[in-house]
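Agenda item 2: zinc ion complex prediction
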Amino acid sequence: MAKSIKISQNNIIIGKLSYDSDLLEELTGICIEKNITLGKIEAIGAVKRSCVGFYDQTSMEYNFLNFDTPSEILSLTGNISIKDNKPFVHAHILLADESGNSYGGHLAPGTIVFACEFIIYSFSGAGLKRGMDDETGLPLWNI
Ligand code: ZN
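Presented output:
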């Protein structure tokens, strides 16, 4: 059975990321700086290169794909919770190359910003902590 909690929206933070920064590290840094431990992230823009993960459900390991070409961020969507007592960003990204072909996956370090506009929706309420889930091998929410 699905498990859920009720939360309410607190603040909305809107901004742009630094040129040449690491997309995931920069988003995580904003959450740490502003002490956002529960929220939603969305962003659009462009990256110089990208690294995305695909979780192999059999081996229970991430395989990472590196793309050394510029691409558009068609959509970045993710959430903020707590892992190892710190704000943790879990985001997925959909990218498109110069021909309009799209690809993407679990956002990993190594995705470098060309330009990026983001919106963070901060929620109030009990923060969600991540813990290891034995069925999936993933650090999922403890609800
Ligand atoms: Zn993921």
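Discussion summary: The radius of gyration is 15 Å.
Owner for follow-up: CH.
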